[in-house]
What does this fold into?
Amino acid sequence: MNGITYLREVKEAVVAGETAIRSLQAAKEKLDSARNWGILDILSGNKGGLISGFIKHSRVNAAQNCIDQAKHDLMRFEDELRDVQDMNYLNVEISGFLTFADFFFDGLLADLLVQSKIAEARAKVDDAIYRVENIVYRLRMIR
It folds into this structure.
């Protein structure tokens, strides 16, 4: 691979990483909204719980959609990284955090358990954002 082709591959990897970061940040925002509505749902008890519960679940569904998009974008980023040779020093294991949504919301009934799953998913999204940002930063240093 010549130098120009290599730099083009690096640029494509950077763009794919930036896209993945945006998707992950959107998922984080939706998870934050679901968490906030979940707290309101817990606090409201029987008073207005139906409305806040409905909104919470719609936010959860929106978060799941964002997570699905982020998983797709992370897979594309991983593919682009494969095109960039000599990237072994980055210790990239994207696939390790692609599975964070696989357990996400499996028909859970208890509000506290839902809150726990939201918090767990958000922590994994934060970790993914950190890792992708770190890789993109290193890629930018190549240019």
